[in-house]
Amino acid sequence: MTEQESEILMLCRNAESRNKGFALLVNHYQKQVYAQIKRMILDHDDTSDVMQNTFIKIFNGLDSFRGESKLSSWIFRIAANETLNFLQSKKRRFGFFSINDNAYLNQTLKSPEYVDYDEFELKFQKAILTLPQKQRQVFTMKFYEHYTFDQLAEILNQTAGGLKASYHHATKKIEKYLEDN
User: Which CATH class is domain 1-95?
Assistant: First the structure.
């Protein structure tokens, strides 16, 4: 655990400084958590909801955090789980993943948040979104956030070897999508 993480955790675990510590935690991690969730969900409002749920779980779980992993790994694991829970909930409610629906993709990727994307970047984003959930998660966290496979293993609670295989399959599927489209 880094010195900064230790300091934040110490403040969060002290009743008198808990709110200050949590504010520091949110301030320090909110951009990374938002980016991680957004790459899986796309929609800003849904991303904000999942991010809020993530930080509520973090706040409620701070006292039970044992420090066996880095604080950041624990935070990103909660964000990953909340994201997957949201997507599963969406699937149960609507009977499909609307995130994989081409009309939804085109609408979302052409929204003002994605206006700066050139033609290739839009195609690349569509390719990523055709991946199964777990491959998409591994690919986006490795490609955009530059996590090592060991870091991903800690965050996602999976083996580094399994994550390497998922990443490899994801890159092959993306390459094929880009060739065919």
Answer: mainly alpha
